[in-house]
Amino acid sequence: MTKGMSVVGPRPPLPREVAQYDEWAMQRLAVKPGLTGPWQVGGRSDVDFDDMVRLDL
Question: Residue 27: which of 4, 43, 10 has the closest Cα?
Answer without folding.
Answer: 10
